[in-house]
Amino acid sequence: MKLLLKITAWLAVALTVLLTAWAICFYVATTDEINDETDDSLIDYSDGLIIRKLAGVDLPSDDNGTNNTYYITEVSEEYASSRPWISFEYQEVFITAKAEFESARVLSRIFRDADDRYFELKVAVPTYEKEDIERSILWWVIALYVLMLLSVLLISVWVISYNMRPLKAMLKWLDEYNPGKKMPPVPSSTNVTEFRRLADTIQNAAARFDTQYLEQKRFIGNASHELQTPLASCSNRIEMLLDSADLTEEQAEGLVKVHRELQGLIQLNRTLLLLTRIENGQFPDSSPMDFSVLFRDAEEMFGEIYSGRGVSVSSNIRAAFVSDMNAQLAVILVRNLLKNAFLHSAAGAEVRVVMDTDGFSVSNPGDTPLDSDSIFTRFYSQASSEGSTGLGLAIADSICRNYSLSLTYRFSGGRHVFSVRKR
User: Fold this and answer.
1) What would you measure as the largest C-alpha separation in the chain, in angstroms?
2) Helices (H) and strands (E) in the chain, counts
3) May I ask the CATH class of domain 193-279?
4) Which of 78, 115, 139, 252 shows its CA 20 to 30 Å from the CA of 227?
5) pLDDT for 95-110, tens place per residue?
6) What is the pLDDT of residues 142-176, one digit of tens each?
7) DSSP category for residue 115
8) What's the CATH class of domain 287-422?
9) Tell me: domain 3-159, CATH 2.60.120, correct?
């Protein structure tokens, strides 16, 4: 999950909880205020009625031209003493203006006149007016809640995304980073202390890695170069001993085994030297290379070498693929991919080559997919194969990277497919 998405999700959860609590509290407080105002208006209205009643002034009509309704009833002293002097409740009352019963908020008050007579005054106001107000407030609260939530989230996403630009620039730099190649400085044009420290850390780590990488390449190149002479000398001495007539059969067999192992070391040493030269850019000359011609030559050569195993080649050259490349490296790239397909194919299998103007692919049958994360690393091998050093695909990958080509692997339809494409 991306950092921006994760922060937004957490903000959404936190704001939802916070704004929901605020909306509930606001709605409850508003409705309580409406109820208080309703009760206050009932008290004020009842005060006026009681004053007029005690003063002997004519009372207004029951509904006073509104939905409010009142009743004054004379009650006994016992009834008056058993009831609170003032109370509120909800009842079903008859609304004269509408000629029907409605749920209403009812105020009941007990009062006494100058003749010690007791009266009960009931003043009612329909609740549908209050409910309309509360319903309207509820919808406005919901609309305000949604608007505030979306606004805060959008603003937060924009602010976070804007301030994360230095981090995105550093991640892009890391994606493009190749050890040993000249790179621009790590982007650090920001006044955020943490981002500047991160950029400095990345720059220092890349510098250390470049130094170690170059030292490692130099060591491999120097070691391989220094090993050439003693390996060749040992091989020649063994050949001279094998030509001697004084060897027993057991000694000769032992020398043959040693010579075979030594030839493997010589091949490995030459391959390491070639890989070092490729990565050091020691093949500067380049020219347009037609890979359809290179594949025809390589197919003929490997077809003869592996004819005893019955491995065949099927070519589908839709169009010639041409790329500027050193001629020697182009041949090595084609031969390494074809040799890898022949080496790891069972007897009687078919190696397929498909080519168009954008690139080509080489495939061979297989049972299980290879480790795509390690397939192009040095000395990786699915299984030990005679004549394989585990460096063929690493060399092919290095050649492609030096000429802005991409070498990829996939397992499709029971076949290992290696594809070379223009980037």
Assistant:
1) 155
2) 9, 11
3) mainly alpha
4) 252
5) 665 666 777 788 899 9
6) 888 888 888 888 888 888 888 888 888 888 888 88
7) T
8) alpha beta
9) no
